[in-house]
Design brief:
Elements: H1 6-11, H2 13-16, E1 19-21, E2 28-30, H3 31-34, E3 43-47, H4 51-62, H5 67-79, E4 101-107, E5 112-119, H6 125-135, E6 140-142, H7 143-152, H8 163-175, H9 189-198, E7 204-209, E8 215-221, E9 242-245, E10 249-255, H10 257-261, H11 265-274, H12 279-294, E11 311-317, E12 322-328, E13 332-336, E14 341-345, E15 347-350
Parallel strand pairs: 5-6, 12-15
Antiparallel strand pairs: 1-2, 3-7, 3-13, 4-5, 4-8, 7-8, 9-10, 10-11, 11-12, 13-14
Length: 363
Amino acid sequence: MHRVSRRNFLKTGVSLSAATFLAGGNKILSRSQIGAPAGAGPCVVASNNGLEAVEKAMNMIRSGSDPLDAVIAGVNLVEEDPEDMSVGYGGLPNEEGVVELDASVMHGPTHNAGAVASLRNIKTPSRVAKLVMERTDHALLVGEGALKFALAHGFKEENLLTDKARQIWLRWKETLSERDNWFPPKMDKLAEELEPYISSYGTVNCIAIDSAGNLAGVTTTSGLAFKIPGRVGDSPIIGAGLYVDNDIGAAGSTGRGEANIITCGSHMVVNFMGLGSSPEEACLKALQKIAEKTRLQPHLVDDEGRPRFGLSFYAINKKGQYGSGSMWSGSTFAVHDGNEKKLKETAYLFKRDKNSRATRLRR
């Protein structure tokens, strides 16, 4: 038997990634032959801060780009935007005032994935995650190791803490306790402007299917604001913050990362789609499972046993159908259906009212 070295195998990975083997045979189908049912794709779905991302990704897919390259380019717009304080440059820092980023990518045709966590000083962790997938035999790199890997591939270190994010962090630190030696300034207009950000949250997820029925996804975030240094949320965890199965569909999430990690939420959504649920139904079923498990942790539920946090899923199936579901009402998501980009209302599990105000989302 002819043996192929790992190095030579990796060299041929680009050509092999465009094909899939039929089970029980030697025939190889090209990517164009894999296909999907008539009417499937292209379609791009994202969290509501990804409206420009879905347009960018759609334009690239129409130009023939791989869907993974397209969704990464889409979220790069968010990662590089200092006004989006939940992702990349300008993201809110950990409790020590340091911005730490998490991201994951997954490519349907090759069923391969890569991720980075607690990455500092690099604006676009999604691009580093893709290199982890393509240029290593690993799925996840973290902390100092992830930074050294990024630098080895030519990324440049930058201070990601913008002045606005620094002021928000400082305001949080000064008002955290009355028993420390940090004194906040007198209340002023600036304080009023910053206050909403202190309880803000976010992540950007973007998933897509192209006209050949191939799927891909990316999730990227600066994580929970003012977190313990080194905390990792669901965004870089394959199966939690992102999961893609090219035979079934793709799903990603934003919201409380801890709840999503311990339930493998995105994998659950894809599994429900594989069992016949529509994307929206699959999202809601996964949320219902998470809500049921949350009742076992009394500090996380309200007086009616409902989760006090938010969590949202986004999904596309192999047919090109899409949907989203949130724990609470009032959310939207972004989609480009091949005709136009738009925000759509998200299906929900619980209706928010004056007595069901969720606490700050934890990513």
